[in-house]
Design brief:
Length: 346
């Protein structure tokens, strides 16, 4: 008899990197491309039956990635790992030499080396003496150091263009966990200290879903929300998804920076087969309401490079403009952004 999958476990096909890579490409506007952005792997995960149990956050720098890896190591020491812990993924550019590397080191490419496409790897840990990120690759044990590799700070800065913390949303940083952490700290007489022990002890505090049923397109849909805090800097972070029965229809992530009075859609996605049906506008209105509730005065809607194919770019600009967002083009890395729509809230 087949074991029933637990709520926080990813789908079975996530154990095969090739299947994941192939399926993730089908979510893009260019499924024939021979590379894949990390975003599509994450979207494949959230589209599964238990998608709201997962969250992902951008890490903008080497120092942020190292800090999260160190925290992930502390969770592992508590026996909290895999789908219950924090996992760091890196999206990077690859070149000739690394494909046949026997050491697993991602060295800065020589001028003659060809660009061989984008790749996604799992960051395992930080080697402090060598100041390298240890990664687990998906090219088999015959590559590198028995399937493992090493990324230097120099390679990270030059060729790692996406770093993401993937973690459970049903436990981990949230308002309910924060209350549990403070209670633990008070009982131990260490309130407002830098001690991470209360955070680690409170990590498994269940974070409930808020849900309601709405009528969209004349049919019933479930709208579900989780209230979180980001792992890196503890900002308020909302996730909202729409489902029709078990079928995934769309999702937003919105992070509220109250110091800057800005809320940013760090994820805003409707699957290709569900577009032009009103799901995007509905999600946008929810995000704007959440931003108002958080006390911010501006909402930003970035366009990621992953979604900026020729057709995707014009479609995104038209959508944002129709929703009264002012559009500005300009690129950034980690995350890879090619433009941002902005709107001031009344």
């Amino acid at each position: 008899m087949q074991r029933k999958r637990l709520p926080w476990e990813p789908p079975e096909n996530f154990s095969d990197p090739l299947e994941v890579w192939t399926a993730a490409r089908q979510l893009s506007d260019e499924p024939e491309a021979q590379w894949c952005f990390p975003e599509f792997t994450h979207r494949l995960l959230i589209g599964a039956e238990n998608g709201l149990d997962f969250a992902y956050e951008d890490l903008g720098s080497w120092d942020q990635a190292i800090s999260v890896l160190l925290f992930s190591g502390l969770l592992r020491q508590r026996g909290i790992f895999g789908s219950l812990g924090v996992n760091v993924g890196l999206g990077l550019e690859t070149f000739d030499a690394v494909l046949r590397s026997r050491t697993g080191r991602f060295n800065l490419p020589e001028t003659w080396e060809r660009f061989r496409g984008r790749h996604v790897v799992a960051a395992d840990s930080w080697h402090d003496r060598r100041d390298e990120i240890v990664i687990a690759n998906s090219w088999g044990r015959g590559w590198g150091d028995h399937g493992y590799g090493y990324i230097s700070r120099a390679y990270f800065e030059a060729h790692v263009d996406a770093a993401t913390a993937v973690r459970p949303a049903w436990v981990g940083p949230s308002p309910v966990m924060d209350r549990a952490k403070k209670e633990i700290a008070w009982k131990r007489g260490i309130p407002n200290s830098a001690d991470l022990t209360p955070i680690l002890d409170a990590w498994m505090t269940p974070n409930p879903i808020k849900a309601k049923i709405v009528q969209l397109l004349g049919r019933q849909h479930d709208v579900r929300r989780r209230m979180l805090y980001t792992v890196w800097d503890a900002m308020p972070f909302d996730i909202v998804e729409i489902r029709e029965g078990a079928e995934f229809r769309g999702r937003l992530h919105i992070v509220h920076d109250r110091r800057q009075a800005v809320s940013t859609f760090t994820e805003f996605w409707v699957p290709p087969g569900c577009r032009r049906q009103g799901y995007g506008r509905y999600l946008l209105r929810i995000g704007e309401d959440l931003a108002s509730d958080a006390g911010t005065t501006q909402v930003r809607l970035p366009l990621r490079e992953a979604d900026a194919s020729a057709v995707g770019r014009s479609r995104a600009e038209a959508f944002a403009t129709a929703c009264n967002y002012m559009w500005a083009w300009g690129s950034s890395r980690r995350p890879n952004i090619v433009g941002i729509g902005a709107k001031h809230l009344n």
